[in-house]
Design brief:
It contains one helix and no strands. The protein is mostly helical and 59 residues long.
């Protein structure tokens, strides 16, 4: 009876100690999304520009 108790205790100890290695497994959940802040000002969009400069010289 004592050998059966010792065997059951050893088996339970091995089973419980084996579950400690589960922390080394990779996560199944997807990583959290990367937060990218919205820029305050961007150069996207419609632009209509023209050059209306004038230059003169005294020579």
């Amino acid at each position: 009876m004592k050998s059966m108790l010792r065997g059951a205790t050893a088996l339970a100890g091995i089973a419980l100690a084996g579950s400690a290695f589960a922390a080394d497994l990779p996560r199944r959940a997807a990583p959290p999304p990367v937060f990218t802040p919205v820029p305050v000002f961007t150069w996207t969009g419609f632009y209509a520009g023209f050059n209306a400069g004038y230059a003169f010289d005294t020579s």
